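Incident log, structure service

09:12 report received: a user says their structure output differs between two submissions of the same chain.
09:20 pulled the input from the user's history:
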Amino acid sequence: MTSRRTLLLSAVGGLGTFIAGSPARAGNQLEEPLADSVRSALSLAIARAAPPVPEFASTGARLTYLRWLGEMVVRLQRYNVDWRERKEFLQTAWYESKRAGLDPGLVLGLIQVESAFRKFAVSPVGARGYMQVMPFWSRLIGDGDPAKLFHQQTNLRFGCVILRHYIDREQGDLFMALGRYNGSRGRAEYPGAVFAAARKWEFKDPQRVDPVGT
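09:34 re-ran on a clean worker, output below:
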């Protein structure tokens, strides 16, 4: 049977291409009651301050990351011409994605759909920044200051932690989790757009050698 994700990718085709001047289009997460334990866990995940400096268990892992970074810096140029800003953004996005147990390509695809990589994007419903985080999250799990959602690492951390929360809540169903992130749970348009955009940020390491037979 054809998977739901395969059908979505076929249906949306070219939806993954968004230009830098396009309006912020999503981020309309709905405010839902959180159990005290969930609120505490999310608050702790947000509060653990750390500079976005990746650490690696091996030289090979570090080299793979550097190859990823080098390729993504080139891909991101159409959205930001400043090399240093692109490098800093990608390092932070990679760090926060991995910290939340997410694929960096998926996160970059979501950011492309949400804000077209605009740091100060604001949606019609008030969602803010790269990952279009709704201000109520600052009250629920942050320090109550929504202005901080325009800070690069803060925005990426909130967005990744929130997406991880939705994935866990949907028991690993990424389609449903993305719909919940967008406030359109159960509808195909938004997950399909994110999946299509994420394909443009996939990284296949040319120097990786897979074991024979895998």
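09:41 both user submissions now match this output. Likely a transient worker issue. Closing.
09:42 reviewer note: DSSP finds nine helices and no strands in the chain. Residues 1-24 have pLDDT under 50 and may be disordered.
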